[in-house]
Design a protein that fits this description.
heterodimer; A: two-stranded antiparallel ribbon; 63% helix; B: five-stranded mixed sheet; five-stranded mixed sheet
Chain lengths: 590, 258
């Protein structure tokens, strides 16, 4: 890690004579770019761990109770390589926990938010650099707490949703909740910082409606986080109190466990579900909106054409965020919540499909009449659109309450959120890494191997996740270690085996990405400032940007999507390039 | 091949539709429906499936077509320097909005039937989810629940009368569970401390189906299964009488044991 950033900081030292010890430059750095890259590396490592956990789940579903080759020895040596039902429960719990709290949320807001916000708005750093540093270092107690929880008893095993009363019977849940709280603190510090930075530190001429979609998405995501997170944190402390202090927020009257009557009681298990989803539904949008923003930027850049409907795109993100606060009940249609409320939540949920549809139409409008360059980032961005259509449309099934009665807690749901979160967000993140890698490390990634990586991931992800719709159609339930003892689901084993092999192939294809990534950091061809001929501000800064980001004072003349403008001879028109009438001197950099 | 990527993206709608068309031929679709209400839910599912299917093919088709036609390597036309279209935005906001509102309203009656319009019949049985079994309590000869003569069974073999409205009182003893009858298209989470009801009507005279726990309830969640047997009222009454007699005999042996 230090060698990578050494490269970027050699630059910084040269230009700004920035001095500081090794520790304060590379480890406890307050530079948003270093923090962003720290987030990126940490989350990629957890991405790998989360992927292995998923393979454990898939193995059990394909070959129940058989020894798992290679990984089994490593992970479950106590059972001789076999997955015990407790272990299986822990595996899917921690797969979701790791992917959501330690990968998707921090990689979007932490890695890309940190790296891109100051660069794209023309600021020299975040508004609160120390707070920013703390937001990264508060992830470490979370890493430790989640890491430790694996080894307490059989590990956390009440799902990533930690529904009481089951969660109250599991010791490891204490560590899990502490981890959750620390992730929350980190996110809160980040979001306060992003909001302040975007509102206060835009370069001259950078009006709100000249911000790139990435920044709009990060801004609205930060608003979502700032308003929804306190609820989860409070709820987390309440559950922690139930576990350790003997309170009874989520424990009903007269509830006993292990033949011991719980003294407090008087609480309501459903209360947790309401509080949890009040955060975690907006969190679903926290996990997709920044991806939508980055995809919009990538698509416009490689379509060589202005983004279609910039303002509708902004309003639809705001619409998703607003509606995102009043749809949490759709996770609870069959939970025992009042069915009258179910109807209200159904209508709200149906309507949240609307802004998503508008976004898809506008992306299609953007590539209409374009000159598409099929670069690796573009392929990932286009696949985001293609896959998000599937994930969006399958959402309508579960929004419809009567249909949800059947498909709730089946693989239909699993298919839906993997299409949104893996085929959507994770693919967008890959695209964003290929796209902004030159800015982060000053070198290009290999295009050919990038395309091979894209092709294999695209094929295999559909092989894993598309059949899940079919499983859900049969009613195949989630979270069962061995569903095949049910007569109804016995014949689904061969399909599950096919999916598992696709999953194994998909994880293996990621090694192409890993090799490309690390090789390119050191040996990729130098990128120059603006390898993609993009308009946005970060491409006018040196690659990688030094401390303080810009070697000139950026002044912004126009929006970020002026590709193919008739005003200039080149097919792009950087935001900083002065218009022809007041262009006596050449623009500083492009 | 110049259009390799466009063609790759065309595979998405082709295989996507094909999977849903072929799956029923391999028995990979809804399990056999034996209920009155289930038909309605299946029809709503297919209604949404066709609607989203059309949208899926249309949008993925457009994506493919644009990728093909506006490929930078083959498209010699200058790019269309357009920032959007107000008319189009209005059209593609209002049309989906109306459609979505229609879908939502169209679902409401089925939802009310399934979860809000509790039938006015006596409770057939009380089901209690506990780690990891479905216990059932039938009213005994006096026809009233929670009296001395109740019949309590804990072997996961649950019988219901067919062809008539069945009203269940459902509860949880320890943690959350979910009483799921795939063949009836009915599911309801059970929550400790909450009394809930569930109702359905089997339209077949004789059927034996799975009872699935659909809410994570601990390490043994996967094995929390049961079997539901539907039979005509007369056979059901006879079965109940037999179980009552067995229970009485068991009680007497217990009481007289040294």
């Amino acid at each position: 890690m230090s060698t990578i950033t050494a490269d970027s900081h050699a630059h910084a030292h040269g230009e700004h004579a920035h001095t500081g010890s090794f520790l304060s430059t590379y480890v406890f750095s307050r530079d948003h770019k270093v923090i962003g890259i720290q987030f990126l590396f940490s989350t990629l490592i957890w991405f790998f761990i989360g992927g292995l956990l998923a393979l454990g789940v898939r193995w059990q579903l394909a070959y129940p109770w058989s020894d798992m080759p290679i990984l089994g020895r490593l992970l479950f040596s106590a059972q001789g390589g076999q997955i015990a039902p407790e272990t299986y429960t822990m595996l899917f719990t921690m797969h979701a926990t790791v992917m959501i709290f330690l990968v998707i949320i921090p990689i979007l807001a932490g890695a890309f938010g940190n790296f891109l916000i100051p660069l794209m708005i023309g600021a020299d750093d975040m508004a609160f650099p120390t707070l920013n540093m703390l937001s990264y270092w508060f992830m470490w107690p979370a890493f430790l707490a989640f890491g430790t929880s694996f080894f307490i008893g059989t590990g956390p095993m009440s799902g990533w949703t930690s529904y009481p009363p089951l969660s109250l019977t599991i010791d490891a849940q204490k560590f899990w909740l502490v981890g959750l709280t620390c992730v929350g603190i980190s996110s809160m510090m980040g979001s306060v910082n992003y909001l302040t930075t975007i509102i206060q530190m835009r370069a001259p001429g950078m009006t709100m409606f000249r911000l790139p979609m990435t920044i709009w998405a990060m801004f609205i995501t930060a608003v979502l986080q700032a308003f929804a997170l306190p609820v989860l944190t409070a709820a987390g402390f309440m559950q922690l109190a139930d576990l350790t202090l003997g309170t009874g927020f989520f424990i009903p009257e007269g509830w006993s466990w292990n033949n011991t009557l719980h003294a407090a009681g008087g609480g309501q298990p459903l209360l947790w579900q309401h509080l949890f989803w009040f955060y975690s539904h907006p969190a679903v949008y926290i996990m997709i909106l920044p991806a939508m923003g980055m995809v919009s930027d990538i698509i416009a850049c490689f379509a060589r054409k202005p983004l279609f409907g910039y303002k509708p795109m902004v309003y639809s993100i705001a619409g998703i965020a607003g509606l995102g606060f009043i749809v949490w009940g759709h996770h609870m249609f069959v939970s025992g919540m009042s069915p009258v409320l179910g109807m209200t939540f159904m209508v709200a949920t149906m309507f949240i499909a609307l802004p998503s549809a508008i976004k898809v139409f506008n992306w299609l409008g953007t590539i209409w009449g374009a000159k598409i360059q099929f670069t690796t980032p573009m392929l990932f961005a286009l696949s985001f659109v293609s896959m998000f259509i599937i994930g969006g449309l399958s959402g309508i099934f579960m929004a419809a309450t009567p249909v949800d009665i059947f498909i709730h807690d089946t693989y239909f749901i699993v298919a839906h959120f993997h299409y949104v979160l893996f085929a959507g967000t994770a693919m967008a993140v890959f695209g964003a890494i290929y796209f902004w890698f030159p800015k982060m490390f000053g070198r290009m990634m290999n295009e050919k191997w990038g395309k091979v990586h894209f092709f294999l991931t695209f094929i295999f992800l559909n092989g894993v996740f598309y059949p899940m719709h079919i499983l859900g159609w049969v009613g195949f339930p989630r979270r069962l270690a061995d569903p095949y003892h049910y007569e109804t689901f016995r014949h689904l084993l061969p399909l599950n085996q096919f999916m598992t092999w696709c999953a194994i192939a998909m994880v293996c294809s990621q090694s192409i990405f890993a090799i490309n990534f690390f090789y390119s950091i050191f040996f990729g061809p130098p990128a120059g400032r603006n390898p993609w001929h993009s308009n946005t501000l970060e491409w006018q800064a040196p690659s990688p940007p030094g401390h303080g980001n810009f070697d000139f004072q950026p002044v912004i003349y126009r929006g970020p999507y002026e590709y193919g403008s008739p005003e200039v001879d080149i097919d792009y028109y950087p935001q900083t390039m002065p218009p022809p009438q007041n262009r006596p001197v050449a623009a500083p950099a492009h | 091949m110049k259009h390799f990527w466009a063609v790759l993206f065309l595979l998405v709608p082709i295989f996507g539709v094909l999977a849903f068309v072929l799956a029923p031929y391999y028995n990979h679709s809804f399990p056999r429906d034996i209920s009155e209400n289930g038909r309605v839910i299946d029809q709503l599912f297919y209604f949404i499936l066709y609607l989203t299917g059309i949208l899926f093919v249309a949008t993925e088709g457009a994506l493919f077509y644009f990728m093909w036609k506006y490929n930078g390597r083959t498209n010699r036309e200058p790019v269309k320097y357009s920032h959007g279209s107000h008319t189009l935005e209005v059209v593609w906001t209002i049309l989906p909005a109306v459609t979505l509102l229609f879908i939502a309203i169209y679902q409401m009656n089925a939802w009310a039937d399934a979860k809000m319009r509790k039938p006015d019949v006596p409770v057939t049985a009380e089901i209690t989810g506990r780690q990891f079994n479905w216990d059932v309590r039938y009213p005994g000869p006096d026809g009233i629940l929670h009296t001395q003569d109740d019949i309590i069974l804990v072997d996961g073999e649950i019988h219901f009368p067919a062809g008539e409205e069945v009203l269940l009182s459902i509860k949880a003893a320890d943690v959350l569970h979910s009483f799921f009858l795939p063949n009836i298209r009915m599911k309801q989470d059970v929550v400790p401390g909450m009394q809930q009801y569930m109702w359905f009507k089997c339209r077949e005279q004789k059927a034996e189906v799975d009872i699935v726990c659909a809410e994570l309830c601990g390490w043994g969640h996967y094995k929390m299964s049961g079997r539901a047997t539907f039979e005509p009222r007369s056979e059901f009454n006879a079965w109940l009488a037999k179980k009552y007699a067995e229970q009485q005999a068991h009680r007497i042996t217990q009481a007289t044991a040294p």
